[in-house]
Every structure is written in structure tokens, then in C-alpha cells.
Design a protein that fits this description.
The structure holds two protein chains of two kinds.
Chain A lengths: L1 H29 L3 H6 L5 H11 L5 H14 L12 H36 L4 H15 L2 H15 L16 H31 L2 H8 L4 H30 L2 H7 L4 H11 L2 H29 L7
Chain B lengths: L14 E12 L2 E13 L4 E5 L6 H8 L8 E10 L2 E2 L5 H7 L4 E4 L3 H4 L6 H12 L4 H14 L5 H4 L9 H13 L5 E5 L7 H18 L2 E6 L2 H7 L2 E6 L2 E7 H6 L4 H8 L41 H5 L5 E4 L5 E4 L11
Parallel strand pairs in B: 3-8, 3-9, 6-7, 7-8
Antiparallel strand pairs in B: 1-2, 1-4, 4-5, 9-10, 10-12, 11-12
Classes of the chains: A mainly alpha, B alpha/beta.
């Protein structure tokens, strides 16, 4: 197991290198002069040259790329063009709010959708099942924006249960701002996930081992919750693990609509201002997270499915 | 319920199916998969149910334990007498007491029929725990003992194996152990040897024969393989397109088939003495009719070599004859082979 994880981590290095090369080429070779685009049309040549020197962009491209790699190894992504703050500090301060939003949302969404899907699969074909599928389709069909606007109007403005916009860092205080975006995320995600999990479970219930389990005299509850669910857990884990990198990167839409200073908001601002160091750091962080979550997924497979051997 | 020491007080049959009719409903319409099927399983016998794919053998055996998918199938008529219970009408609660403990079932493909994510020990003890309140230790030793009986080497170790760690033959032995661990009166074996190679088939059939001898289990053996039937069955039910077309002792069926379908099935059985390598094996051309459009007459009419006008117009009734050994032999044909038609 340890050897497997180590080897997979080593395999991850070329993947991350590939991502850095593509990112670097996109921004430095095809993207024009990054400093000039940041400073805008009113900048003088002297301003551009000064800043190029400051950020090491006056060096040759291969040297700049090596600088970039060296930054990644030290986990120091230089300073932001816009705020002049170290990018690492910006990331660290953004991760907290993002995780506070996305982690509870993912856990709640998964818990709720797996439960609804179980009920739906349990009563497959009956009225309860049809009703739940109908609600799930409605849930996923309505736009995110409708939920945001309606939520802000009805739950935060008319019935002042939550704050409309903003954020406070306090561990207790943050929830009055985060509750509404979490609810919106859960409502939208539950629609999608319920349908996915239900179809996974219904597919499992057509397998032969289900008939064997019934033939032993087991109750429907035991067949579904023990035999079916353990087999359905692999697709469920996969679905959840796919979302893990996005937990850290936050939600672009929700963070900007609700004014939450998370990673998503940070990326939007950086893109808007052509803040290259932030964009490059963000890209690398995402690719590292993807590699890590893929390894974790495979390890979880081995734990849940005895047929999977890590070698 | 039954006093085993006085066989006279036992009900005459281990299982008695009368006029069983099963309907399947789908978006494309409904069909009668099994129609007025009647047969009886005697104590301690192996009854073969044979026929091509789609003739209703598996539906019949699953219907006995009410294991058909309930949202699109329904037993619309008939009676399945088991002891004092009519399995068509007993409550689901009573049915669950019967499943696994009094009537057990084994399936065609042991790889897919065993749950891949639980150890075989878990799956066997789970069946015990469902029906007996005994300690985990006792469950475990029962399971290991049963694994030993079905010929699993070092069962104490195998107990902790997952299905994928066993060979095909071992898996089917595990299925059999799981089915028999509570010593059921009736075993439904649905194509138990089809997924296995020939040497393993023989071993599994031997095992079933031994079990029948030792535990007096009555066995319904569903198969499309007449070779299997010839090897172990006492009596045979031949099904075609959801109907019983011929029924009788294995000797009568093999030596004196009356229904043309049975006869043609026999011919398509490879036999070393009859067919040299240069002869093509005879086959029955055509397909089992689509049950959504049932023919008015005999269901075998369009594939039969001796079809007459009457066969297409009128479905034959079941005709019975009692042979010298007091065995009933019945068939559903207007122009039966062999003896004189009635």
C-alpha cells in the first residue's frame, strides 16, 4: 500500500510538470507580454521594464520557466501583480472560506442524495419513487442563478434569516453568511446526485446476487442496505472524490454572488486583473489536488472492493 | 411440522405446482411467460425441468420462491402447495421464513450470484443467522462443516475468501453449501452446471446426487441440457413456450418420448454411438414463438415436422397414460409419437 502510494505520487510529478509547461506556454508565449497586459494601455515603457525586472520577466523564457518550477518546489508563488502580497498568503486566506462553503455543502449533498436515492430505489416504480425523481429533475433543471436570487430575496431579505452578502472570519460568525450559499449548493447538487445515485442503485438491484440474497430469506431492507449499498459504494465514492479538488478551489459563482473571500473569488479577481502569478499558482494547486484525490480514490477502492488490489 | 419417523403422515408431495400462470408486463405490452403449469415434486427425487431458453423454466422456479421482479411480473393464477402453505398466497413474512430455510435455490452463474464484496463465510453465516438464533461461533462451525461436505478443501481458510478468489467449480460448491446449510426440504437448482466445464459439471451433479441421498432433499433441476437430465433425474418435465408439453419418468421420456418436441430435443443430444464425427448434429430449426402473440393451436406447430391442420387451429390438451411401473406419462400433442393417439 505505502509503496503503491509512493509510486503513484512519483507518477504524479510528470503530470504536474505537463500542466506547468502548458500553463507557462499559454501565458508567456501565446499570451503576449503579461506585464503589459496587467499594467494596461496607460503604462509607459519604463513602467513595464521596471516591473519586468522586479518579477524576473526580463530573463530568457527557459530561465523564467525554471524560476516558476523553483517557486512551485518551495511552494512560494511569488507576489501578486495587483496586491503585491505573497500569492501563498492569498491562497491560505482564501482556502478557509472556500472550504467552509464547499465542504459542508458536499457532505450534506452526498448524505441527502444517497438517502433519497436509497428511498427511491427501495420503492422503485412506486409513487414515492416517481415523485422523488420528478423533484430531482426539477431541482437540477432550475438555474443556479434563480436559487441565488430567490434565496437572497426570500430567505435573506423578506425573512431575514441570513445575511445577503459578505463574510466574517470568526468561526461562529461566518455561518450567517455561508448558510444561504450552502443551501443553494445543496439544492442544486442534490438534484443531479440523486438521479445519478438512484440509477447506480437500480442498476445494482438487477444483479444476480440480489436474487441470491432474497432467496436466503433476507428482508428487503437488509438486501438493499447491506448487499446493494456496499456494491453501489464504489460509484458513490468516485462521484464524491471527483468533487474533492473543487472543494479547495471554491465556487466561482457562489463566492462572487455572496461576497465570500474564497479561492473562487480570488481567481475571478485575478483573471479580471490579468494577475498572472495568482493564475499560475491556482493552476498548479488544482493539478496537485487532482493527482492527490485520484490516488485517494484508488486507495478507497481497494478498501471497499476486495477485488481491487493495489499493485 | 412433519414427523420424519413416520413417512405416512408426510404430505404426499414435497412440492405441488398446479396451474401456475405468470404474466409479465412491460411497456411493449404484457405476455404470459408461464401458463397453467402443473407438476409435482416427490420426496427425495430429482425432477428435471427441461426446455430451450425462454420456455419458462427459470420463471417457474423463481415463481416458486416468489423471486420474480415484483414491479413487472405477477403470478395471476395457480397454486404452489408446500406442506400446509400455498406459496402463491402466503404472506411475505411466511415466505421469508421458507426462503433459504425450507426451500433453497442455486443459480446458473455462481460468480454473479455471489455478492463480490462479502466473504463467502459472511454470506453463508448470514443465511444461518436469518433463520436460527445461534451464536456466531455456532454459525461459523455450521458453515465450515457445510463447506467441508460440499468438498471445499481447507474450509477454515476458505471461509474468509471472497468469491473472486475461488475457481468456478468452487464457487458453485459454495452456492450449494449456502443453499443447503439449513437443510432445506426442497432445492431449486436453476442451470447449476451450465456455466461450468464438463468435468466440473459431473462433479457438481454427483454432489447433488449425494446430497439427495444423504439429506433426503427433493431437488428441482432446471436445465436445457438433456445429458444432465439423463444422468441424475428421476422424472422429467419438458416445457415449451410457457407450457408443459410432456411429463413422465426419465425412462419414459428418454425411451418413449411422445411429444415431437421432446423427441427432437433427444435427437439434438450428442451421442457417441449414434453420430459419427462426419454427421451434423440435428437441430430444431426456428425459434420459440414470441409469447406476446401466442398461436391459437399447438405452440410447437410452426417448428414441428408432422404438423397437421388441427395442430394450428386447436391447442392440444394434456393426455396421460399410466405405465406398467404405475408411473404417469403425459403429453400435450394431437398426434403423439409412439403409441396410438387418443
Amino acid at each position: 500500500m505505502t509503496a503503491y502510494v509512493l509510486r503513484r505520487l512519483l507518477h504524479g510529478i510528470p503530470i504536474i510538470l505537463g500542466v506547468t509547461i502548458v500553463t507557462f506556454i499559454l501565458f508567456h508565449v501565446f499570451g503576449g507580454n503579461p506585464i503589459a497586459s496587467f499594467l494596461g494601455k496607460n503604462a509607459t515603457l519604463a513602467d513595464i521594464a521596471a516591473m519586468e525586472k522586479e518579477y524576473g520577466f526580463d530573463k530568457s523564457l527557459p530561465l523564467q520557466y525554471l524560476d516558476y518550477l523553483y517557486q512551485i518546489i518551495r511552494f512560494d508563488f511569488g507576489r501578486s501583480f495587483a496586491t503585491r502580497e505573497p500569492v501563498v498568503d492569498m491562497i491560505i486566506s482564501g482556502v478557509g472560506p472556500s472550504l467552509s462553503l464547499t465542504l459542508p455543502a458536499l457532505l450534506l449533498t452526498s448524505l441527502i442524495s444517497v438517502s433519497i436515492a436509497l428511498v427511491s430505489a427501495f420503492f422503485r416504480g412506486q409513487l414515492v419513487d416517481r415523485l422523488l425523481v420528478f423533484l430531482a429533475v426539477i431541482g437540477m433543471s432550475v438555474s443556479f442563478l434563480v436559487y441565488i436570487v430567490l434565496g437572497q430575496y426570500l430567505l435573506a431579505f423578506k425573512l431575514p434569516l441570513f445575511q445577503i452578502h459578505g463574510y466574517e472570519a470568526g468561526f461562529i460568525d461566518r455561518w450567517q453568511y455561508l448558510s444561504l450559499p450552502i443551501i443553494v449548493m445543496v439544492v442544486v447538487g442534490t438534484g443531479y446526485d440523486t438521479r445519478f445515485y438512484r440509477s447506480v442503485m437500480v442498476e445494482e438491484t438487477t444483479k444476480d446476487y440480489i436474487v441470491t440474497a432474497f432467496a436466503k430469506g433476507l428482508s428487503r431492507r437488509r438486501v438493499m442496505f447491506v448487499h446493494m449499498l456496499k456494491n453501489a459504494s464504489l460509484p458513490i465514492i468516485t462521484r464524491m472524490m471527483i468533487s474533492v479538488p473543487f472543494l479547495v478551489t471554491g465556487s466561482l459563482l457562489l463566492e462572487s454572488f455572496f461576497g465570500i473571500p474564497g479561492m473562487g473569488n480570488m481567481l475571478l479577481t485575478a483573471l479580471d486583473q490579468a494577475d498572472l502569478p495568482v493564475i499560475k499558482a491556482y493552476t498548479v494547486v488544482i493539478s496537485i489536488l487532482f493527482v492527490l484525490s485520484n490516488i485517494t480514490t484508488d486507495v478507497l477502492y481497494a478498501i471497499f472492493d476486495p477485488r481491487v488490489k493495489l499493485s | 411440522m412433519n414427523n420424519l419417523s413416520s413417512p405416512n403422515r408426510m404430505p404426499p408431495m414435497a412440492l405441488s405446482v398446479t396451474d401456475l400462470t405468470v404474466r409479465f408486463d412491460s411497456d411493449q405490452g404484457s405476455l404470459i411467460a408461464v401458463e397453467n403449469v402443473s407438476f409435482q415434486l416427490r420426496h427425495g427425487e430429482i425432477l428435471g425441468v427441461v426446455g430451450e431458453s425462454g420456455c419458462g423454466k427459470t420463471v417457474t422456479s423463481k415463481a416458486i420462491l416468489r423471486l420474480l421482479p415484483e414491479h413487472f411480473s405477477k403470478i395471476t393464477n395457480g397454486k404452489i402447495q408446500f406442506g400446509n402453505d400455498d406459496l402463491v398466497r402466503v404472506t411475505e413474512q411466511r415466505m421469508r421464513q421458507i426462503r433459504g430455510a425450507e426451500i433453497a435455490m442455486i443459480f446458473q452463474d455462481p460468480m454473479s450470484a455471489l455478492n463480490p464484496v462479502f466473504t463467502i463465510g459472511y454470506q453463508i453465516t448470514e443465511a444461518i443467522a436469518q433463520h436460527r438464533s445461534i451464536s456466531r461461533k455456532a454459525q461459523q462451525s455450521m458453515a465450515i462443516d457445510m463447506l467441508k461436505q460440499v468438498g471445499i478443501p481447507s474450509p477454515e481458510r476458505r471461509f474468509f475468501d471472497y468469491p473472486h478468489q475461488l475457481s468456478g467449480g468452487m464457487r458453485q460448491r459454495v452456492m450449494i453449501a449456502m443453499a443447503l446449510v439449513l437443510n432445506p426440504k426442497v432445492l431449486l437448482a436453476d442451470e447449476p452446471t451450465t456455466a461450468l466445464d464438463v468435468t466440473l459439471q459431473a462433479q457438481i451433479l454427483d454432489l447433488m446426487d449425494t446430497i439427495r441421498e444423504k439429506h433426503k432433499t427433493s431437488i428441482i433441476l432446471v436445465t436445457h441440457d438433456l445429458g444432465v437430465v439423463a444422468e441424475v433425474c428421476d422424472r422429467v418435465v419438458v416445457m415449451y413456450a410457457g407450457r408443459v408439453v410432456e411429463q413422465g419418468s426419465a425412462v419414459d421420456i428418454f425411451k418413449n418420448p411422445r411429444h415431437p418436441y421432446t423427441a427432437r430435443l433427444m435427437e439434438s443430444l450428442p451421442q457417441s454411438d449414434r453420430h459419427s464425427r462426419h454427421h451434423r448434429l440435428p437441430t430444431i430449426s426456428g425459434l420459440v414463438p414470441d409469447l406476446r402473440q401466442r398461436p391459437a393451436g399447438c405452440r410447437f406447430a410452426d417448428r414441428c415436422l408432422i404438423t397437421q391442420q388441427r395442430c394450428v387451429q386447436e391447442e392440444p390438451e394434456l393426455v396421460s397414460e399410466v405405465n406398467a411401473a404405475h408411473e404417469t406419462h403425459s403429453w400435450r400433442c394431437h398426434y403423439p409419437l409412439g403409441g396410438m393417439s387418443t
